[in-house]
Amino acid sequence: MEKQQYRPVIRFLFLDGKTREKIKAKLDAVYGDLSPSMTTLRYWFNKFKRGRTSVFDEERPGRPPDVASDEIVEKVRVMILAD
User: Fold this and answer.
1) pTM above 0.70, yes or no
2) What is the DSSP letter of 8?
């Protein structure tokens, strides 16, 4: 399961008044070994406690990641060969 999928669950349970320990127990019961660590849970719990509402990663400064899908590589190859 993707990390972004846990965050709304953590936020929901936080807004429902659950403690970190109860949220962790619920995540472990539902997701088992795939549930996030207590460290991750603590991080997001504290973020929500300080007023954060978004469950998405914030933009980071710096160069954006390179994108190189097979489709793009093929299009560039065709353009080069066409010249």
Assistant:
1) no
2) H
